[in-house]
Amino acid sequence: xxxxxxxxxxxxxxxxxxxxxxxxxxxxxxxxxxxxxxxxxxxxxxxxxxxxxxxxxxxxxxxxxxxxxxxxxxxxxxxxxxxxxxxxxxxxxxxxxxxxxxxxxxxxxxxxxxxxxxxxxxxxxxxxxxxxxxxxxxxxxxxxxxxxxxxxxxxxxxxxxxxxxxxxxxxxxxxxxxxxxxxxxxxxxxxxxxxxxxxxxxxxxxxxxxxxxxxxxxxxxxxxxxxxxxxxxxxxxxxxxxxxxxxxxxxxxxxxxxxxxxxxxxxxxxxxxxxxxxxxxxxxxxxxxxxxxxxxxxxxxxxxxxxxxxxxxxxxxxxxxxxxxxxxxxxxxxxxxxxxxxxxxxxxxxxxxxxxxxxxxxxxxxxxxxxxxxxxxxxxxxxx
Length: 384
Ligand SMILES: [Zn+2]
Hints:
By secondary structure, the protein is of the alpha/beta class. The chain contains ten helices and 22 strands. The strands form five sheets. Strands 1, 2, 3, 4, 5, 20, 21 and 22 form an eight-stranded mixed β-sheet that branches. A six-stranded parallel β-sheet has the order 6-9-10-11-12-13, sandwiched between helices.
């Protein structure tokens, strides 16, 4: 039995003063307020708040590896790094690649999700709980760094091939609503349980609203790879910012979006619908140099990942995203924490596995200070 005490605890809903968590066999045995005179826990954080571990719905890699390698070794290296940075769950995110390469990667990822024990874990290791398909059904005009030659027109039979290869683990798909066939595909994917996220798109407001009516529930890295805001044709961005029910991702590294734009997004989406993501690629957690994203080379210098003159993913971690967000907006911690825990879990339908702290769950939690900086991370009850 291990105990953790801190100044406060936020379980996903409420704040508790002077908490004590007991951990048994990697799981949370109890959460309570400390009785007066009760000693400090084995791990004690007198100035920090305990909170659920973070959930990243958009991450391509870290620690020198890309999820599309889809090997136990690659996912083990990524998972050890993520656990150390407070991320307790993630969706392994593919980039657009030749279809046969994507199908192979999905097949490998599906078997690793089905058999998490096959991922080597010498130490706390975060394992993927689902897959995010970023492409191939994206706009040529707003593809960012996604290779144009492998983009495909939305097509139900191609989607079904991807869905089958992913063994039912595809939980999220980024889709450009303006492409021919996109609305039918949004409805089809939604019916199969794959959440649709609008993005990499040059859509008008009407095209975006049609995708939302067909079931789309979120937006992929709001502002990035999206038609810019126009006051006569609000487009996808205007629709994302003003549709109250829609979740919306943001890359909060101060590079993909200016701090003033982060504040605008916060005012628009708020603590119920905002989702902080990393969009991290293999260079996250590594020194500057040349790395891979899916099938192409990316140069990383001074925190900027570039390929062919375009931003190519990030080297962000969610703990830094939280600290940046707190600095840029001044939002209170119990609101900003929702953006990395409760909201991504609700959007993807994983609220039973991630995003909250409850007795009986695996003890995946963080301690963060008042500035949103990570103080400690625990994965399955072990300090990571
Ligand atoms: Zn991405």
